[in-house]
Amino acid sequence: MSTPDVFKDEIQRLTVSTVRTEPDMEVGVYLLRRLEELGVKSFFGVPGDFNLGFLDLVDDYPGIDWIGACNELNAAYAADGYARIKTGNVGAVLTTYGVGELSAINGIAGAYAEMVPVVHIAGFPSLKEQEDRPLLHHTMGDGRYNAYAQAAELFTHSHTILNDVHTAAAEIDRVLSDCVLESRPVYIALPTDVAYAKISSYRLNIPLPRKPLLNDRAAEAAAINEIAKLVEEADGDVAVLVDVGAVRYNVVEEVRSFVETTGFGVYASPMGKSVVSEAYERYGGLYTGATTRPEIKAKIEDAKLLISIGALKSDLNTGNFTNKLNVARTVELHATTTKIKFSEYAGVGMKYLLPKLASVLSTTSGIKSKTLTIPVPKWTYSLPQESDEIISQTWLWARIGQFLQPKDVVIAETGTSAFGVLDIPFPDNAIFVSQILWGSIGWTVGSTLGAAVAAREKGLGRVILFIGDGSIQLTVQELSTMLREDLKPIVFILNNGGYTIERALRGERRKYNDTVNWGWPRLMQALGDVDGTRTKSYVVNTKAEMDELLNDTGFCAAEVMQVVEIRMRMFDAPYALKAGTPFGSKW
Amino acid sequence: MSTPDVFKDEIQRLTVSTVRTEPDMEVGVYLLRRLEELGVKSFFGVPGDFNLGFLDLVDDYPGIDWIGACNELNAAYAADGYARIKTGNVGAVLTTYGVGELSAINGIAGAYAEMVPVVHIAGFPSLKEQEDRPLLHHTMGDGRYNAYAQAAELFTHSHTILNDVHTAAAEIDRVLSDCVLESRPVYIALPTDVAYAKISSYRLNIPLPRKPLLNDRAAEAAAINEIAKLVEEADGDVAVLVDVGAVRYNVVEEVRSFVETTGFGVYASPMGKSVVSEAYERYGGLYTGATTRPEIKAKIEDAKLLISIGALKSDLNTGNFTNKLNVARTVELHATTTKIKFSEYAGVGMKYLLPKLASVLSTTSGIKSKTLTIPVPKWTYSLPQESDEIISQTWLWARIGQFLQPKDVVIAETGTSAFGVLDIPFPDNAIFVSQILWGSIGWTVGSTLGAAVAAREKGLGRVILFIGDGSIQLTVQELSTMLREDLKPIVFILNNGGYTIERALRGERRKYNDTVNWGWPRLMQALGDVDGTRTKSYVVNTKAEMDELLNDTGFCAAEVMQVVEIRMRMFDAPYALKAGTPFGSKW
């Protein structure tokens, strides 16, 4: 692996900052150039009068497509979904001052919690307006022009108001670097006049940094030495548990290479599902604490050594804190630290450590042959034999497992869907997308828009959304944007009469968990497929109907946008959700 | 008018706070009792696991109906619309921790800007969870449990986290008093366990204060004396300009009585439209600065004395700051101050001043007879003669003017609708609802839900929404909640192919101002009227069709929910919007 020369970069950077060159580019265009550099080909948002000027620049910019969303929250969700699929790059969302940016803030906060690199650009009053502070529309009416930026600070890693033309380029570079390196959202307030101010484009000669700082070499060497010793002592009985940090900090390739080189059995947490292909021969399945299948549980909890990669120990990612990992037998790899048993090695991040560790272990004789003697459970899910035709949660997910294809992008809403999809063994390189920490219901609709755009850019497979009839009502309008953008997602709506995940928790039969039963087969006609020629809608009542649909080659080809209403029982949930909830456990 | 004895209240309050009584009521129920006292009969929101416990209390509480909305932003908008109609009372919205409350924050910020008393209650982690700070879902993942409350502080007048059971009742009383007296939103974070903690209900013996603090008596007397002198000098040529503060600070009755007693001609700003009935014989129409009709403009700008009531001088409320009011001839009445020419009388608020001033002026001989000699323009809007059948903006609003009935509640979305409705003379006691300062597009859909519920509670007339095909896409799902709640709004969708108000400003033909053309006649079937029996949908292409519909007595009776798509030109806008915009001025 080549070592980036930080000194060389730094010297070049210092040189650039002292060179005075003629202004030759609008601040807005500079920003677009940098976004493009970070992989942004599609840019989501909603127009508003504080961003229309910048939008002219976007519209005229050849490398980036504008994708107007129906509302700002959905646009933020879309940028998040886009960034998740385009690992190592960023997503971007544009909103207008106040009304727009605040509507998006839950989407940005979710990206923060789930470590997704989203750039939030908000239109901002001009420099003169900021000075005079007239009582403009979209202001609080009390002269506090900065209140929204203050709110943004709470939910982003870095933030800037581009009020100084002279530092605008440096500020853009600073926050965008943070976005991609820290994998967290950032906020840029862009005053209407500054978007058009001319600056030098000279800084563009230096690409933004894309790799983390190098590890502390001595600490790294010590850590590798220590881990190698533990591996040797484990005598082949080493398990790898992959979590969300692996994909967010862009070490997917390093992890794949590491597990292939060593032969260690590899498992995933819910948020780490599909980071390593679930079709990989040494992949053993999902670890969810107490509700884990016993054969998988034993492999993880009894391994002589567990190597945990990018762990995020939230309630729903750990079987509600029932994971039993023995620290005395665990190595934890993170973005900037390594923890070996009880000792932390600061400044030793996994991006550089993993390849070196793999290299050291590959030269230690006999390790791989020993690890390969340790069997890995087969991660399967058989169709249950049930006596009736009602589509049960248990049957559904097993059946969906047969339906999935390699490279599919599978998006599961917080609710029965996210729990259910976890159980499905994914085909090779199918990708799982969910919001297990933040859990904002409705998120998947916006996220599917962004993910589908990204999947098309990357040439991935079908985009398949699973969502309940309650959750989809929060954000439904964005299906219309998918239609306009000629995307072809398959949208499965699990119609079980309201908020089932909440019924499992509390108020099983309370009216507050009921939602209106919509006319799902009419939905796409209402949302823009006026003559019904550009989408297909289905209603599925029985297992036989579901089978027939999923066996239909035209349906599977997903050549138009398709919406499937699946009618299910109100009181039914996937196993893990039943097991962990007061009412669900009685279903 | 009776004078509240603040000392008596205060003594009683001090007594209560020192009385120790047995806990007999859950904190959640105490909160509901106080909300009910402030006029809350319907409570909007979305369930989530941090508020389900409290929701059980709501569900069991006889005096308050739970109205579950499709999403939190819409729920906040609904609480805002509800509060606007129930002048002097409050609206309430319930969300869950993080994901829910942040989705609602734009609605709360809008209520702040527009001075609407909305109580935002957010579910919050239990005391133990706050102490241990586990990595729960809906948290930021970094242990900052208070980040959302910090955001709420920016957009509310008062806020509290009910962590101390001993002060919970006092804290509830404090923020709710602020809500109703300051007419601004407040925030209450309710930990899951505290909702069920038992406290004494003794404080409920003292009602929350509903009236502002008394005026400084000496300053008030001086102000009245000064104003009376100016009125006398004006020799009857006095105009009254009513603005939004009059309704928000609950002086509608005082204003009505004042203008009737004095006979002064009365006019309104856009945000003050309908505060004084537009059918009142001495009502002269709308003042919008430069775009005001000349005969009205002269009456306001040339009056020897102008009495301005509750003014809010925002851009869109003043014809983009083109209002020409001569301070040397103006008296401004506000909630807590009075400004006479250039002098401010602090502590002299309009609630108590107006009746006293009316009383003084009524005993000054000859004033009313003089004022009645000053003619007031007739506020009318004739149907234009146009040669084609296309429904123009100019024609539409005039025709709608003929359609309105007394006590109708008319809600106009920011866009061509809000500008267009301003021009319509309203029948007696018809109410105008719009969001002219905050201007968050999509707001009216949620707001209509709340306004329609409030209108039903108050026995008002029809609820009529005007919204564009672009704006409705932000928040469309809440039409479904109106259906479930058996509300009967008439929803006019002005279909002009996108964001027309933005086209008038910039990007006239840019793609970012285009939206998807939905299948509007199918909309209500998709949103829950599955068999099409509970709503009616219409498409109107021509003036003749519009006439026919508006003349139909069944349609006018509004006995079911009705949705009307009005097909209009893309490049057309009401006069005021055309006049003030770079592209609109060419249409």
UniProtKB/TrEMBL annotation, chains A, B:
InterPro entries associated with the record: DHS-like_NAD/FAD-binding_dom, PDC/IPDC-like, THDP-binding, Thiamin_PyroP_enz_cen_dom, Thiamin_PyroP_enz_TPP-bd_dom, TPP_enzyme_TPP-bd, TPP_PDC_IPDC, TPP_PYR_PDC_IPDC-like
Signal peptide (from-to): none
Domain Thiamine pyrophosphate enzyme N-terminal TPP-binding: 25-137
A matching Pfam family: TPP_enzyme_M
Cofactor note (record): Binds 1 Mg(2+) per subunit.
Cofactor entry: Mg(2+); thiamine diphosphate
Thiamine pyrophosphate enzyme TPP-binding domain residues: 432-552
Localization terms from the record: Mitochondrion
Xref: CDD domains: TPP_PDC_IPDC, TPP_PYR_PDC_IPDC_like
Positions with a binding annotation for Mg(2+): D469, N496, G498
Domain Thiamine pyrophosphate enzyme central: 224-340
Example of a GO cellular component annotation carried by this entry: mitochondrion
Family that this chain belongs to: Belongs to the TPP enzyme family.
Protein name: Pyruvate decarboxylase
